[in-house]
Amino acid sequence: MNDAVAGLLDILDLETLELDLFRGRSPQVGWQRVFGGQVIGQALVAAIRTVSRRSVHSLHGYFIRPGDPTIPIVYRVERIRDGGSFTTRRVEAIQHGATIFAMIASFHEAEADALAHSVTMPEAPDPESLPGEKELRERMLAGAPESVQAYWRRERPIELRPTDVTHYLSDRPLPPRQQVWVRTTGPLPDDPAIHAAVLAYASDMTLFDTALFAHGRSVFDRSLQLASLDHAMWFHAPFRADDWLLYDQDSPFSGGARGFCRGSLWTRDGRLVVSAAQEGLMRQTTPRTAGTPG
Fold it and tell me: Which of 132, 157, 201, 218 could disulfide-pair with 4, CB 3.0 to 4.6 Å?
């Protein structure tokens, strides 16, 4: 296991303060606010710590306030229900005495697949045929802020291989769809709960970008105010987050200063294992000027 993956697992390994009360920390890397995927992953870990013999099958979370990376986050779990086959938990992430994130997660006892179907995996080039991260950094980050370039230059726990980087290099409106192969940069323990938490972390990395493609914009555009508003995931079948997963994403709508995005995660052998959805704030704050990174 490399240092970056070990660091991610350390971030997701919450400290137990009291029954149903946990504390998480953020990496000190100069970010102005906590990465949304980190809060989703940590909140899921907090919920998992209060459940036995059942696996997460869905989560629905709302980002309420920006997180402060300089102080810990306290996670408070409410045990809403322990039913015959489903378990429900509510999680609040708290900083400075206020809720920054709230999530409901549902857990399900494994059952036989008496009724099962799945759509067909979309076509995509193999991840080995795509540029690695070193080449992507050189092509994509020339106009990015120094803080963003510094983040991409560090050893990172999640590797991303887009099947097409045109969206990131052009300021022309393009179809709001993308495919990205994703996996950790090193092996993970076999515990399925760890793989669920790691994928929850990674699922927030590219999804909202998709809504900006239709407008020829990117997350590096300083004339926009961008923020995740909510995030939902459905876990359909077992997977490993240290094996390549195809993240097929699209944005069917944006308007009213909000963009809506959907994602499906597939194993290489064509199994649909996770679905995701997110809405985010995309607000024009200042006039866009010539030379603004698109």
Answer: 157
Quick check: 66 and 245 in contact, CB under 8 A?
Answer: no
Structure tokens given for 62: 């709302």
Q: Is the pLDDT of residue 293 over 70?
A: no
Q: What are the strands, taking DSSP E only, across the chain? A: 15-18, 21-24, 55-63, 73-82, 86-95, 98-108, 158-162, 177-184, 224-235, 245-255, 258-267, 272-284
β-pairing, 272-284 vs 86-95, is unpaired
Question: What are 197-220's pLDDT values in tens digits?
Answer: 999 999 999 999 999 999 998 877
Partnered with residue 228 across adjacent β-strands are: 280
**CB burial of residue 133 (10 Å; 0-12, 13-18, 19+):** middle
Contact 206, 167 (CB under 8 A): no
**Is the pLDDT confidence value at 127 over 60?**
yes
What confidence score (pLDDT) does residue 89 get?
Answer: 98
179 carries an active-site annotation: no
Joined together, the tokens standing for residue 69 give 């990376």
- Catalytic residue among 178, 228, 249, 254, which? 228
Is 149 assigned a catalytic role? no
Q: What's the number of CA atoms in the CB half-sphere (13 Å) around residue 148?
A: 14
Residue type, 239: F
Rg of the chain (C-alpha set): 19
Tokens for 17? 């303060």
Residue 292 pLDDT class (50, 70, 90 cuts): very low
* Strand pairing report for 21-24 and 55-63: unpaired
How does pLDDT run across 216-269, given as a tens digit for each residue?
Answer: 988 778 889 999 999 999 999 999 999 999 999 999 999 999 999 999 999 999
Q: Are 46 and 211 in contact (CB under 8 A)?
A: no
Whether the pTM exceeds 0.85: the reply is: yes
Active site residue 278: yes
Q: Residues near 191 by Cβ (< 8 Å), separated by ≥ 6?
A: none
